[in-house]
Automatic annotation (TrEMBL):
Chain's gene name: murF
Reactions listed under catalytic activity: D-alanyl-D-alanine + UDP-N-acetyl-alpha-D-muramoyl-L-alanyl-gamma-D-glutamyl-meso-2,6-diaminopimelate + ATP = UDP-N-acetyl-alpha-D-muramoyl-L-alanyl-gamma-D-glutamyl-meso-2,6-diaminopimeloyl-D-alanyl-D-alanine + ADP + phosphate + H(+)
Species per Swiss-Prot/TrEMBL record: Pseudogemmobacter lacusdianii
Binding site for ATP: 108-114
Protein name in UniProt: UDP-N-acetylmuramoyl-tripeptide--D-alanyl-D-alanine ligase
Pfam families xrefs: Mur_ligase (PF01225), Mur_ligase_C (PF02875), Mur_ligase_M (PF08245)
Amino acid sequence: MTLWTATEAAEATQGRATQDWRATGVSIDTRSLQKGDLFVALKDIRDGHDFVAQALEKGAAAALVSRIPEGLSPDAPLLIVDDVLEGLSRLGAAGRARAKARVVAITGSVGKTSTKEMLRAILSGQGKVHAAEASYNNHWGVPLTLARLPQDADFAVIEIGMSNPGEIAPLAQLARPHVAMITTIAPAHLAAFENIDGIADEKASIFTGLEPEGQAIINADLSTSARMIAAAPQNTVTFGTAKSAAWHLDSATPAGEATVCRGTSPQGPLLYKVATPGKHFALNALGALAAAAALGADPVISAHDIGRWAPPAGRGTRERILLDQVDETFFDLIDDAFNANPVSLAAALDVLIATEPTHGIGRVGNGRRIAILGDMLELGPDEIAMHRAVARHPGLAKITTIHCVGPRMHALYETLPRAQRGIWVETAAEIAPQARQLFDAGDIVLVKGSKGSKVSLVVDQMRKLGQRAAPMEGTE
C-alpha cells in the first residue's frame, strides 16, 4: 500500500521531487531498509547522503536529501529539501494531519517503552495500531514514527523522551495527541536539570500538544504529582495506589511468572493480569488501561488483552539458560541492561528479591540471588550518593552477592557489607569474560545498568554459556 507519493511528499516537505515515485514506507537506515521505502538521509555520526546510492540499489523508492550526492545521477528518484531533519519533521506533521487515528503520547522517566508496548497489546484487539518498533522517542524518532503513520490506522502510540530542557513540547505539538500520559518521574537526566521538579515540569510540557478536549493521564503516587496536575488541562485522570486516584491499584499479587492485579476504575472493580512479576509493571499497566479507555477502547477487552504484553528485550526479560541438558542444570537470567536510574533499579531489585532461586542443582547447593550492577548515568552532581544509597534498599540482604561495574558503582561496592561484595571492575569488558565464575546452577542473576555502562556485554556472554529455554518475562 502506498504511504507517500512524490507529489504528496513534496507538498508536505516544501521540497522538489526529481521524478514521480511511490513509497510504501520510510527508513533512516540502509541496514533495515525495505524495498519501496523512502530513505531519509539524516546526518548523525555519519552523513546519510553517503548511503543514498546504496539505499537506491537496495530498492528504495526515493531518497530525502538536501543535496544530490556525488556520483549520483541527477535524475535519480530524490526529494530535495533545504534541511533533511526539517523535511522529516514536516513529513511527520503531514502524516499526523491526514490520519484518522486516535493518538496517545507517552512520556516519563521510567517505563515509556514498556507502556507503549502495553498499549499496542491492548489496542491491537480493537483496531489497527501504529507504534514504533523501537524506542524512537527523540527529535528524529517522533517525526519518523508520524511519517510512517498509515492513513487508515485506528490508533497511534507515540513515545516521547528527552535528555535536556525544552525537548518534549515541540515533539508533543508535532504529535498532537488526544491522550497524553506520564508514567513516573525519577532522577534521570539530572545532569541537565536543577532538580526533580525541573524534570516534572519538562515531562508535563507534553500537555502543550494535547488536542482540544484532550485528556491527561498522570501518576498520582509521586511527590511531583500535584505539580504536574496543575500544569495539565482540566480533563485529567489519575492512576496509582492512592485511593484518591481515579484508577487505583488495590493489590498486585505474584502468581508464578505473572502478577494478578485488582483495582478500581471509574466504571467499577477491575481485574487484570500482567505476564511478568513486578508492582511497577502492574502500575504502568493500570495507566495504560486508563489511557486506552480515554481513547474509547472497550475496558473489558482491554483488561483481557493486557495479558498479552511481555517486556521488550533488555528491559527485564527473564529467561532460563540450560547449562547441561543431560543433568538438567540451569540458571535464570533477568536481562535489564538497557537503562537504569534509582527508581528503575529499585524496581528491578524488588523483583530479584521476590524471586526464589532453584535449590539442589548446583555446586553450592542452595540457589542464590546474584546482582551485576552497572553505573547509572546522567544523574547529576549527587550521582555518587545515589549509587551509595542502593545499599539501603529494603530487603537487599536477600541478595547473596552483588558485583559492581563502573566508577560510580564503586561507591556502592565500598558501602556493601564485605560478605555481600562480589567483584568491582572499571568496565563491563573486564567482567564479561568472567561470567561463568559469577554464578552457579540454580542461581537467578539480575544484570542491570544504564546502556552506556555496557553491561549488556555480560548478558551476551551469559547467553553463550548454554541454551535458552522457554522465555520467562521479568522486570522494567
